[in-house]
């Protein structure tokens, strides 16, 4: 990056480390599929932390578990609407769904009963399940967002049951090895930062414990490095390396709940936190464990992302720093638009379908996209717009917007020529209220006047 950009990025990290009195802070910016900038302030064992220094990443662990669950969904091993009882029978909250657990809308208690799990050695699944035999639900399932660490302990067990191994073994085989994230581990492997609490009224430190969380580990056990977090930031932005389909990551970034419906600035998707800051839509996740704070964020539109780690229990505004780093990069070196290129090949029959179609009197434009995808949008630019991916002969499935998941079907005349589209009962014809026999309720036989 330009020297001026790098200076501004380092200045932001340096100010945060000094003002928050953090023992050390690392940060990076991801762009164009690579770590474009790395910066660090403070010391770990008397030396500046490097791209290979491990920090505990806390609840960013949840995003890894969510990817494991979505892989199972994409394979057909589970449905997001499945009740927990289908895969982990016998719990006192078996009616909650997989999707509700992912999005923190199941209503489960936020923390596991007993000692504070983040500072106490964890127990096994059987002990966790028994501790939740009574009063596990704090809210009606689906009624509201209620962040639950317990829910991700449960999802870890779902992964283990369906894979026939521990969630950590599944993580290693399905995500870490394929993405070459060799320094993301359940326990620290040197070089690793020690977690500290900073005294509020004096510049002195207290070491924090880092016990194994047992069955609660899927909620926040993992350690990682700047290099590995850079790769994970790319995945959040959609560069999945084949671990997950980019469409599935896009689905995870869609908010299932928003915290402030009037403003819609923060919310939660399927395992990912989502937010809108200054007109920018970001997705990722924060993490905190005693002695550590972390954040991963990515702009889904530009692909620019940032991550921050610190070995301090509190005080470091990792989310604000990550957002600021993205904004600095976009202000100093805005992303270039992707070069336009013609389609490498196309189906003439699909090309013939493009152009004007009408829902009643409202004109829409149908455009041909790569890989036989279609885009349907109002000519005015206002209203319902969606992309559609092929689902079979003359069939497409909505990917986003109002028509996400709905079927777009092309109907033909007896001689095989295109007649009209049926999109979730909405009929699109070449002319306004054309093809009268296809229009629900019919068309006045006297026509326009």
Automatic annotation (TrEMBL):
The keyword Hydrolase applies. GO terms for molecular function: hydrolase activity. Its EC number is 3.-.-.-. Gene3D superfamilies: DD-peptidase/beta-lactamase superfamily. Residues 347-430 form the DUF7586 domain. InterPro entries: AmpC-like, Beta-lactam-related, Beta-lactam/transpept-like, DUF7586. SUPFAM superfamilies: beta-lactamase/transpeptidase-like (SSF56601). Keywords: Hydrolase. It comes from the Bacteria. Residues 12-326 form the Beta-lactamase-related domain. Pfam families: Beta-lactamase, DUF7586. PANTHER family: D-ALANYL-D-ALANINE CARBOXYPEPTIDASE, D-ALANYL-D-ALANINE-CARBOXYPEPTIDASE/ENDOPEPTIDASE AMPH. This is Serine hydrolase domain-containing protein. It comes from Actinokineospora soli.
């Amino acid at each position: 990056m330009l020297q001026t950009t790098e200076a501004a990025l380092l200045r932001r990290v340096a100010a945060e480390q000094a003002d928050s009195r953090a023992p050390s802070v690392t940060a990076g910016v991801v762009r164009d599929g690579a770590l474009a900038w790395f910066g660090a302030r403070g010391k770990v064992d008397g030396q500046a932390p490097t791209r290979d220094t491990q920090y505990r990443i806390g609840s960013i662990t949840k995003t890894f578990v969510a990817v494991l669950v979505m892989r199972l969904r994409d394979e057909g091993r589970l449905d997001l609407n499945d009740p927990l009882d289908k895969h982990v029978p016998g719990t006192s909250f078996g009616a909650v769904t997989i999707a509700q657990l992912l999005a923190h809308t199941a209503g489960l208690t936020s923390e596991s009963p007993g000692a504070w799990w983040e500072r106490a050695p964890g127990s096994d699944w059987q002990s966790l399940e028994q501790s939740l035999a009574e009063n596990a639900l704090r809210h009606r399932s689906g009624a509201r967002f209620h962040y639950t660490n317990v829910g991700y302990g449960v999802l870890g067990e779902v992964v283990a049951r369906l894979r026939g191994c521990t969630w950590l073994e599944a993580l290693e085989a399905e995500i870490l090895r394929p993405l070459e994230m060799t320094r993301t581990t359940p326990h620290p492997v040197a070089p690793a930062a020690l977690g500290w609490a900073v005294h509020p009224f004096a510049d002195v430190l207290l070491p924090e414990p880092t016990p194994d969380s047992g069955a609660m580990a899927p909620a926040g056990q993992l350690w990682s490095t700047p290099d590995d977090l850079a790769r994970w930031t790319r995945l959040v932005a959609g560069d999945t390396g084949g671990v997950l389909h980019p469409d599935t990551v896009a689905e995870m970034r869609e908010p299932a709940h928003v915290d402030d419906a009037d403003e819609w600035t923060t919310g939660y998707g399927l395992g990912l936190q989502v937010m809108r800051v200054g007109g920018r839509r970001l997705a990722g996740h924060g993490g905190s464990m005693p002695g550590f704070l972390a954040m991963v964020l990515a702009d889904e539109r530009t692909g620019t992302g940032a991550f921050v780690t610190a070995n301090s229990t509190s005080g470091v505004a990792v989310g604000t720093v990550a957002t600021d780093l993205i904004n600095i990069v976009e202000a100093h070196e805005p992303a270039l638009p992707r070069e336009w290129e013609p389609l490498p090949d196309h189906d003439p029959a699909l090309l013939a379908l493009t152009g004007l179609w009408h829902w009643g009197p409202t004109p829409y434009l149908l455009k041909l996209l790569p890989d036989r995808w279609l885009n349907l949008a109002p000519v005015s630019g206002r209203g319902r717009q969606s992309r559609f991916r092929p689902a079979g002969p003359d069939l497409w499935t909505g990917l986003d917007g109002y028509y996400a998941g709905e079927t777009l079907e092309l109907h033909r005349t007896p001689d095989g020529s295109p007649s009209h589209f049926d999109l979730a009962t909405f009929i699109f014809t070449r002319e306004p209220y054309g093809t009268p026999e296809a229009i629900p309720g019919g068309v006045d036989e006297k026509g326009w006047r």
